[in-house]
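Exercise 7. Given the components listed, write out the predicted structure of the assembled complex. Treat all entries as one system.
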Amino acid sequence: MGLPTQIDPSHHTGLVQISTAKARSNAAPSDAHGGQIVSSKVPAKPGEIRLAEIRPFSFHGKHYVFVVPVTGIFEISELAAEIIRLFLIGAASDGEAVYTAAAIESRSLVADEVVNALRARYTIHSIVQGLSELQVLGVLLTEDGSQPVQAVPFLPKLSGKPFPQRSLVLNVANDCNLGCTYCFASQGDYGAPRRFMSQETARESVDFLLQNSGDHPTVTLVFFGGEPLMNFRLISDTVAYATRAGELVGKRIDFSMTTNATYLTPEIIHFLRDHRVGVAVSIDGPKKFHDLRRTYKNGMGSYDMIQPRIMNLLREHKTRPVAARVTLTHGVTAVSEIFDHLTEMGFDEVGFAPVTSSDDDNYALTPEEFWQVLEEFGKLTAKYVGGVSSTERPRFSNLTNLLADLHQGVIKAYPCGAGLGLLGVGSTGKLYLCHRFLESDEHQVGTLATGVDRARQAEFMAVTHLSAKPPCQICWVRNICSGGCHHEGYKRYGTLGHATIHRCEWIRAWINMGLHAYVEIMEKSPAFLERLEKGDT
Ligand code: SF4
Ligand code: SF4
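Answer.
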């Protein structure tokens, strides 16, 4: 029996696409993270149908399917779920593949076998319609390859071509007054001489950003360090210069900054407010956690110094959201308690990142602690979903970011814009892959004066591309995770382009949690996801 090529809408089986991922079988991806998409025509014997890469799941009595190649989420009918179950083998045959499985095992069937298995309970017409709809949505593939689907994005060839800059992260102070024991920047200087960026270099950075930003109407300048507020005079001058320069060429420059908060005087806070500088504060929760590792160089904790300054910042600075960035380390895994403390202080959003480490660092999270963190993320996720219908802005930014990726149906060949739309500028004007690779000669990709070294950039893009990471090729979260942070992989395995395979199971479990949160929110409050899409949360 063949499959009909048109769907009769009056007989559809209840498949509803609920994320905004488009059926992209012939579409090129929209931005820099993608490159072109290859069509995968899975070979099968004549007459056979097989599953594409999918992850079926059920929640609150409803059935869903996550289509891996397009990052699309579909609600499906009982009949469609039953059709899918017929194709599944072994552990996955309950229709809920375990999140630890890299790929779902499935068998090939001919349409007659599917019809015969289900005709006692469904009409032949509805079964055939169900097969057809699943085919159109890329869930089923047929022997003629008529449903090409995206697999792994092609490696884009960028050598020699300019690439528009969206963000520059300026190392305005290659120095820090604190000595946090887990610092990836060697306590603020990245192993290079302690120095401040000059006014000339900062202004050159602004010119470089504007000249190389292509058609982007808005670009972002990030003040980073070390501790950037050690060089506040430069920040103040650069904001004034960049604002004028942006106006002259009709572009808007957004400013942001990451700070340890120790230098937040009333004067600086008013400046940040008046110039709409987005602020992210590095803080690890209440004093008992924060002071464990966020200390001065003499070992004294910094909490008592920053707490009143942060309260003043949160009271005065309302022109942009103020975020808390928490680094999770050995002994600092009480995510809910930390979240409550920081939201009670008044932070608009709180994001958590496991520390970048090797196993023998004494601050590294143990495997047990990683799973504790996930359990804690589960508590915050439940609260987030429970409160989502209210007008309150959700503050757990890890989940907001994941939901946005799911809703937009992202397909990322790279986990971030590092080396592409985003570059780090070192204190002397050298360009680096991102802020975490500042002052590292090995990761330099040009200078402000000579521009981006296109050959180096192409080399970097080749080794870090998702298609160059073998473990990721069969992973169902690959288009969202993209192999993980380049810096984390580099720190852990000593080479650029290594997937962060030490925590794949964790990443898959977290994205699985996000999928369930997504469909629950879609059921309760679809308008929230629209707000999310517009960046209105
Ligand atoms: S690094 Fe990410 S994409 Fe690669 S296998 Fe692990 S979880 Fe999957
Ligand atoms: S490489 Fe890692 S630290 Fe750098 S921008 Fe990407 S995700 Fe962030």
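Discussion: Residues 469, 471-472, 475, 477-478, 481, 483-484, 499-501, 504, 507-508 surround iron/sulfur cluster (ligand 1) (CB under 6 Å). The longest helix spans residues 504-524.
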